[in-house]
Amino acid sequence: MALFRFAGPLLGTCQSRLADSIRGPRRYRLDTLPFALGWDDVRRLIATAASDSEIDLRDRAILMLLAVYGLRHREVTGLRLEDIDFGGQQLRIWRLKRRQPQVYPLIPSVAEILRVYIEQARPSVGFPEVFIGARAPRVPLSGIYEIVARRLRPLGIELAHRGPHALRHACASKLLADGMTLQQIGDHLGHRSAESTAIYTKVDLTALREIGEFDLEGLQ
Q: What is the DSSP secondary structure assignment for residue 74, as one 8-state letter?
């Protein structure tokens, strides 16, 4: 349409406001592919927090929760100690758009890193939230975007989303590659609409081939 607006007055070929009556091509929200991390890249990302330092233990637990459960950043920062049932091997997540908690099986690798962080690295503070900032004042984390982005930068991976959403996309893509239905994936991610799930899982075959097995190869 910009061509019509420019060429019309200049060449005398278009009637006034003709360009405004011409519609551009329709664009759909689902036409843009999400940029999901492959599962090998997820392992590489988690491996950047492989030491036993307080920050690495905390960040490794956060990254694994994001990747395995596809959590939103506020669902991670809002996680409380009482939401982790080590004995019953359950994890309760208070989804932002639901009034009731969503209960997940607490897989061993996630349970182990959470246990180690809580017992060995988490500061002794009176807050119920699991994740606490590493610097004074020792208060619950309010955001984790920079944690994920900082861990991604050295890997040189180009992504549309460099924060927690990158791992949410990776989780959805991995579940799709494993043969789960959109409804099952939506339930796992805490979606209430199928359209939301479709946006996360619209990936090409190349991306699906790169994802690999849904495990962390011994990473704790």
A: H
Q: How far is CA 28 from CA 12, 31, 157, 194, in A?
A: 34, 5, 26, 15
Report pLDDT digits (tens) over 1-39: 443 343 344 334 445 454 454 454 444 444 444 456 889
Q: Which amino acid is at 216?
A: L
As its CATH architecture, domain 34-209 has Orthogonal Bundle (1.10)
| pLDDT mean over 169-192 | 82
Please give the positions annotated as active site: 72, 97, 165, 168, 191, 200
Distance of CA 171 to the CA centre of its chain: 7
Q: How far apart are CA 167 and CA 98, in angstroms?
A: 21
pLDDT in tens, 59-105: 999 999 999 999 999 999 999 999 999 999 999 998 766 677 889 99
In single-letter form, the type of residue at position 10 comes to L
Contact 75, 93 (CB under 8 A): yes
From the CB of residue 57, how many other CB atoms can be counted at a distance below 10 Å? 23
Instruction: Tell me the whole-structure pTM to 2 decimals.
Output: 0.74
Task: Decide which of 124 and 208 is more confident.
Answer: 124
Q: Tell me the domain boundaries of the chain.
A: 34-209
Give the containing element (helix H, strand E) for 96.
none
